[in-house]
Amino acid sequence: MAHEIRSLFFPGPVGRLEALLNTGDDAATHAAVVCHPHPVYGGTMHNKVVYHAAKALNGCGLPVLRFNFRGAGRSEGKHDDGRGEVEDVRAALEWLDREFHLPLLFAGFSFGAGVGLRAACPDARVVALIALGLPVAAAGRAYDYGFLRECTKPKLFISGTRDEFGPRAEIERVAASAAEPKQLVFIEGADHFFEGRLREVQEHIERWVRETLH
Which of 74, 210, 47 is CA-nearest to residue 132? Predict the structure, then answer.
């Protein structure tokens, strides 16, 4: 089956949320959601890292949903400093579950990883997690990942060694404290946005998904 991209809206906690769905294989075994970086700084579902993550997951045959958080793009509502955005992720997981009735995979980049992991870790429908450019040192914003100690789902962390919002030592500390199973990948010389290195990010995701889900 040829994969297509569908534009759609789904119901969120404070209004409808704008989304794109990359259709998957007819025999897809999982469905995935990918969450975008901070909307206040221009993050949307069209972000390059989000696009390449979705492309990697779709390349593994999965249907993949990208959506704009409340107040971004044509999504209704207004930015809620990461609180309401956790509920937006829950709404996306709910939509995917209703649409496909398949085990779910979560992926998020930057802010999308930080808030999305909070929704995805305790959700029994989510069986694996990917955090790209996990933020730990963003100015004025506190990110606490203590909950990962209880999250026993397979986890993939990918960060650049020159990530200004995720210093290597801090990312190593977060990953070390997270429950097994987990894999931590550093892309040498890459910045927070993986500029010029997105093909490597995509390859790491594809390899990990094929090893983890099949």
Answer: 47
Confidence band of 167 (pLDDT split at 50, 70, 90): very high
**What is the extent of the structural domain holding 204?**
5-213
Using DSSP, state whether 199 is helix, strand or coil: helix
Q: Are 105 and 209 in contact (CB under 8 A)?
A: yes
CA-closest candidate to residue 146, choices 174, 122, 166: 174
The CATH code of the domain that includes 18 is 3.40.50.1820
In this predicted model, what pLDDT tens digit does every residue of 182-194 receive, in sequence order?
Answer: 999 999 999 999 9
Residues 72, 37 contacting (CB under 8 angstroms): no
Hey, which bits of the chain come out as E strands?
5-12, 15-22, 31-35, 64-67, 104-109, 126-132, 155-160, 182-187
Number of domains, the chain: 1
Model-wide pTM > 0.90: yes
